[in-house]
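Researcher: Let's do a round of design. I'm pasting the structure tokens now; please hold your answer until I've finished.
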């Protein structure tokens, strides 16, 4: 017998979000009826933009790995922003910052990618301690960005578990003006203002050959209590990515509604 986790509708949850990007994300989720994030791990910018234009109607959030693009230039970001406006989704750069505050501040604001300029959301490991949040916040809060903490990972043998995960939750609760939630495999806090996003979601596979471990969309939301599913290969490797994105969106949305 499935034990369902109780949730508030996103239209109510946004009232609990301290972070502005979290509020905006809740609004988009509610209006598009989509708690689906596409992980667009494509290395060619034109192909990536075509994919995003095709499935943009189905997603609330687009997750990028900007450093895997083989032909990155600033025009790509302009085109991506145009698509984000056209389809109304936010952009999440899955940068996984992991250094001391002083260094991550420079990585967030500068370098080739200037992530803070265009990514509404980014994420950080908690292994360095709260200084990583403070460093990123010095750059990000000025632009009202949101940060997700990596409290758990989807991969086999991940060390982000137990007391590490609990300490990450405590860190988030200490910085709710900038930290908007978690990357995790399940709900970690009852605080409705913090959003849980779960990667490693797919219907057709249980794992890949490099340690990725998949769960089903329904399992992620109904059993584990997450808020947003992150799907990559399950969508962009499908023969019809739009149809597949729509199926993931509908499944994740129905699952969430049934918890409300
Ligand atoms: P997939 O194709 O759906 O397996 O892609 C998953 C994406 O989520 C990929 O970009 C990973 O880098 C990302 N990811 C993950 O799979 N597991 C994690 O714990 C974290 C990120 Br954090």
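Researcher: That's everything. Go ahead.
Model: Designed sequence:
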């Amino acid at each position: 017998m499935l034990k369902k986790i109780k949730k508030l509708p996103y239209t109510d949850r946004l009232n609990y979000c301290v972070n502005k990007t979290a509020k905006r994300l809740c609004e988009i989720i509610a209006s598009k009826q989509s708690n689906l994030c596409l992980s667009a791990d494509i290395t060619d910018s034109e192909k990536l933009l075509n994919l995003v234009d095709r499935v943009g109607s189905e997603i609330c959030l687009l997750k990028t790995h900007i450093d895997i693009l083989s032909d990155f230039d600033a025009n790509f970001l302009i085109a991506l922003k145009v698509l984000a406006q056209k389809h109304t989704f936010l952009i999440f750069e899955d940068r996984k910052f992991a250094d001391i505050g002083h260094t991550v501040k420079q990585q967030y604001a500068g370098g080739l990618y200037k992530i803070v300029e265009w990514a509404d959301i980014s994420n950080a490991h908690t292994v360095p301690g709260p200084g990583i949040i403070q460093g990123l916040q010095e750059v990000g809060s000025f632009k009202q960005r949101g940060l997700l903490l990596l409290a758990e990972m989807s991969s086999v043998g991940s060390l982000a578990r137990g007391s590490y995960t609990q300490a990450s939750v405590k860190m988030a609760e200490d910085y709710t003006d900038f930290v908007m939630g978690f990357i995790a495999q399940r709900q970690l806090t009852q605080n409705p203002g913090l959003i849980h996003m779960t990667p490693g979601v797919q219907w057709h596979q249980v794992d890949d050959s490099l340690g990725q471990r998949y769960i089903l969309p329904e399992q992620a939301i109904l059993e584990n209590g997450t808020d947003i599913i992150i799907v990559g290969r399950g969508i962009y490797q499908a023969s019809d990515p739009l149809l597949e994105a729509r199926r993931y969106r509908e499944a994740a949305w129905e699952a969430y509604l049934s918890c409300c």
